[in-house]
Amino acid sequence: MGRFHFLKEKKFYINLLIILLLCGALLWITFRLLDKYTRHDKVYTMPDFIGQDYREVKHDYAKDFHFILIDSVYPKGQQPGSIYQQDPLPGSKIKKGRNVYAIIVAVMPEKTVMPNVKGISLREAIGRLESSGLDVEHLEYVSYSYRNNVIDQYYKGEPVEAGTELVKGSKITLKVGIGEDRMRVKVPNLIGKPASEAKRLLNLAGMNLGKEVYEDSDSLQYMCVRRMSPGPSSGSVNPGTTIDLWYHSNRTMDFKKEMQLLLHEDSLVNTPKPIEIDTITESIETTDFEYEDDF
Predict the structure, then answer these.
(1) Phi-psi region of 291 (alpha: psi -120 to 50; beta: other; left: phi over 0)
(2) Does 277 have pLDDT greater than 50?
(3) Over the stretch 9-22, which tens digit does the pLDDT of each residue have?
(4) DSSP string, 45-81
(5) Angle made by CA atoms 233, 242, 212, in degrees to the nearest 5
(6) Which helix (H) or strand (E) holds 29?
(7) If you ran DSSP here, which 8-state letter would residue 3 be given?
(8) Domain containing 213: what range?
(9) Are 57 and 84 members of one domain?
(10) Which of 56, 75, 105 finishes a domain?
(11) Does residue 108 carry a pLDDT above 90?
């Protein structure tokens, strides 16, 4: 009998077919299990958790994600216990069951010390307050010879001395000199600026923030100034003037287009009216000129 005599056996081919079928079945089961384990065919959009209470989000989405708290911060004007940052970012394509890393707003407020901002410029005073984790609540302009010089500092309507312990994020009222010339200040153009920067920019320009209107319900991080009153076309106003702001999400509005429209409106407002030729001729004819000999 030859070495390959088994190739003539029917039993050999039956066994070979059984082996191939078993290998195919094992491969199919393996790939199905891998797909189920890795969710290879299911991709989801990451929700936006920013600004929501961390405990509630963790409870509501416990079956979908594994939340990991990595840090806490003390930002101004944010709700304690809310999510400040998240990774993956909102809108990312992810698979369910993955880790979500979160930074939250600290529940316990952090303390700071009131700096001395008397006798310095408004710009420097705002910088010192920011370095101490404090905010400007209101600018009160009063008669004083030095313009934009801080005369006094108040907390909750009462004078506050340097070294006083305050909660970070506390709001300070500054009494500021208007100067002998009582010069008006130019309204800054805040269109397209983030909502988080608007108040600071107004304070640096010597103005106060009035009412704030949010035109949609998107997260605060996407909100930008869409309209302001008085606006940039108003020219100049008295120091301490209150400016109202309207915000809109930069994800649903083209702010470059809004700026172009604003610039166009400003050009129409500031363009001088054309003078009629007949008016010029009439003015020349009816004016008596007197010439003086300069020699």
Answers:
(1) beta
(2) no
(3) 777 778 878 888 88
(4) EPP--TTSBHHHHHHHTTTT-EEEEEEEE--TT--TT
(5) 90
(6) helix 10-38
(7) T
(8) 184-271
(9) yes
(10) 105
(11) no
